[in-house]
Amino acid sequence: MTSLETHFEVQAFLAYEARLLDEERYPEWLGLFTEDAHYWAPGVENRGRSDKEGTYAPSRMAYFDDTLDDLRRRVTRFTAPTAWAEDPATRHLHVVSNIEVEDGETAGELLVRSVFVNYRGQGDVDAATLYGRREDVLRRVPDGGLRIARRLVVLRHAVLPAKNINTFF
Amino acid sequence: MKDDLLALRDLDDGWLDRRVFWDRDVYELELERIFARCWLFVAHESQLPKPGSFLTTWMGEDHVLVVRRRDGSIGAYLNSCPHRGNRVCTAEAGTARGFVCNYHGWSFDLDGRLAGVHESAAFGREPTFDRSKLGLTPVAQLDTYKGLVFATFDPDAPPLRDFLGDFAFYLDVMLDNDEGGTEFAGGSITSVLDCNWKIAAENFAGDALHAGWTHASGAEAMLGRGVAGLSGDDTESYHVNVNGHCWEFNLDGVGNAATLGDRRIIDYLRANEARFTERLGPLRAKMVGSISSVNVFPNFSFLPGQNTFRTWQPKGPHRTELHTWVLVNRDAPEEVKDAWRKGAMMTFSPSGVFEMDDGENWELATRANQGVVTRRQRLYYGLGSDTAIEHPELPGNVHRGQVNDANQRAFYRRWSELLRAGTWDEVPS
Ligand code: FES
Ligand SMILES: [Fe+2]
Predict the structure, then answer these.
(1) Is the bond preceding B350 in cis, omega lying within 30 degrees of 0?
(2) CB atoms within 10 A of CB A52
(3) Percent of chain B clearing pLDDT 70 (strictly above)
(4) Which ligand is located closest to the Cα atom of residue B104?
(5) What is the mean pLDDT of chain A?
(6) Distance in Å from the first CA to the final CA of chain A
(7) Angle A10-A77-A128 (CA atoms, 0-180°, nearest 5)?
């Protein structure tokens, strides 16, 4: 059982992270990850319950299957002045909820589950809503703060109801 | 019907009528005369590894169930129950011994035959009930080309090899550069774009022009620099097309592959260059990973090098469902295959640093035509009007220079021919 204080700390951490994404503060957002971080958002397939292959798997296609360097590359695109599709800026809203915190497998790590909804408005009338579940491993670092060491994002969509994902979850 | 529109009379002069992207009746005719008649890509054989393997996909707006049968052959059927029309298979992929309809429990075997019915006593008393006539409706023809499975609803469609024609020579660049053939790396990703399907298809058919501009930020992310100009006098590059199938390319060998930003892929291509040359000859060996893009008419596209394979499924005149896969050589080392899987997703998936910039352009290029006055304004497709050449090695219609509209014009010419033809006999070959 984690303390009230830890739960509160995690909740504040995730809310801050969501705001960084809403405000497109990508370099700061990258700073929330450990150097060895893995960020994985598998493609979700519409498969039967008895299908042993499962609805997602590491060997299959993914929206993100990223090391920190991969994430940095994506941020390079987002912040390039030639990213025409990002100007005017997309109006992102990341809502994070249903936060559960427990001790991780490794000392100094927490296993954090949450759900998210990403609403976005783009251009004049373009809008999309993406949602899913997340499972994070947060690691306590020497300065006392928390960093994301692992994130699994499982979208609830088999057909992504949008033309792209121009943010992170 | 608007014969005048379908004739695209100004196309040879480099002009396209915008109504082709907007009108509902044009779209309905496309479903009948293109999607219900042409050979369409439905699967890669590797997606159906054993008897009972199945997947569901689209042929036009018809939902289709593709299965590996007991005898190893592949079948494809309308995924709609002959009883009341319900979808028979509700998963996108998996393994099954047969399919049972959820509505009244009719069951079908892998050959599509009606195998059993619920309350069989009632049906047994019914003289009009003939089990042999109530199977799933099969496609008219199904065939494969080097791992790719195609099907057509039209019994009169020419054989797949004739439909592809000399384009097979080019397809071998991707499908036959290695003895072990190819496979899809695993899984697929599907997304939706509010654009006309042809805007995406013609982009892959010939639009090298957009690469350096639209994708400047993606190139910055993956290469640390923009895309170099593609139309200099010193570059050797082409538009080629056969029967409306289009390939634009240069001969830089690894220009597309380099955008994946993974050394292992470049090393693999370089290490195998001699083998590619042996199988394909020196010219085609340089196309394996070069700056290029391809559309197999009507809606099956891919990028050599990035190895993203995709279909643009029509969902109305202003909506397209994009299905994507990653192609790899079956005998490539596992870590190389995995590098391709990751690289293709990093660049060309809905979250990919290149793909991300296409959708918005295509959606807005579609939506603009809602305006009745806007729709009257022709679009410029005039690049490369005098670039046709004869080439000693390259078959089909060959044009010099990949910054060109020759393939796009060929794509719409084929579109026009098919929409105006009542039967395959009337389609110019
Ligand atoms: S609709 Fe399929 S069994 Fe009735
Ligand atoms: Fe593009």
Answers:
(1) no
(2) 8
(3) 100
(4) 1
(5) 96
(6) 26
(7) 65
* Helix/strand/coil for B32: helix
3-class secondary structure, B128: coil
Evaluate whether B78 touches B84 at the Cβ level (below 8 Å).
no
Query: For residue B234, what are the contacts with CB-CB under 8 A and spacing of at least 6?
Result: none
Residue B83 Cβ < 6 Å to ligand 1: yes
Q: What is the pLDDT of residue B227?
A: 78
The three-class DSSP label of residue B38 is coil
- C-beta of B87 in contact with ligand 1 (< 6 A): no
Tokens 């249903």 sit on residue:
A98
Residue keyed to tokens 């009745």: B372
Q: Measured between CB atoms, does B349 come within 8 Å of chain A?
A: yes
Task: Name the helix (H) or strand (E) containing B240.
Answer: strand B237-242
- Side chain identity, residue B97: R
Residue B229 has pLDDT above 90, yes or no: no
List of chain A residues whose C-beta atoms are within 8 Å of the C-beta of residue B187:
42-43, 45, 56-57, 59-62
Find the closest chain B residue to A40 by CA distance. Answer: B342
User: Rounded distance, CA A64 to CA A56, Å?
Assistant: 13
Task: State the average pLDDT over residues B18-33.
Answer: 98
Q: Are strands B114-116 and B107-109 parallel, antiparallel or unpaired?
A: antiparallel
**Could you give the domains of chain B?**
40-143 (2.102.10.10), 166-426 (3.90.380.10)
* Residue B125: Cβ-neighbour burial (10 angstroms; 0-12, 13-18, 19+): exposed
Full-prediction pTM beyond 0.90?
A: yes
Mutate which of A51, A53, A164 to test chain B, going by most B C-beta atoms within 10 A? A164
pLDDT at B160 over 70: yes
Please name the residues in contact with B4: beta carbons below 8 A apart, sequence gap of 6 or more.
Answer: none
Q: Is B97 on the interface with A (CB under 8 A)?
A: no
pLDDT tens figures, B168-219: 999 999 999 999 999 999 899 999 999 999 999 999 999 999 999 999 999 9
Comparing CA positions, the residue from B301, B381, B383 lying closest to residue B18 is: B381
Contact B360/A at CB under 8 A: yes
Q: What's the rounded Cα separation, in Å, for the pair B374 and B24? A: 17
- The Cβ of residue B283 has, within 10 Å, a number of other Cβ atoms equal to 15
Question: B413 pLDDT exceeds 60?
Answer: yes
**pLDDT at residue B235, as a whole number:** 78
Alpha-carbon distance of B89 to B96, in angstroms, equals 10
Is the Cβ pair A77, B349 closer than 8 Å? no
Per-residue pLDDT tens over the stretch A103-159: 999 999 999 999 999 999 999 999 999 999 999 999 999 999 999 999 999 999 999
Report pLDDT digits (tens) over B64-95. 999 999 999 999 999 999 999 999 999 999 99
Cα distance between residue B146 and residue B101, in whole Å? 33
Nearest to A139 by CA among A113, A114, A110: A110
Nearest chain B CA: its distance from A52 CA (Å): 9
Q: What ipTM, to 2 d.p.? A: 0.96
User: Which amino acid belongs to residue B75?
Assistant: G
| Structural domains of chain A, with CATH | 4-155 (3.10.450.50)
Is A153 buried (19+), middle (13-18) or exposed (0-12) by CB count in 10 A? Answer: buried
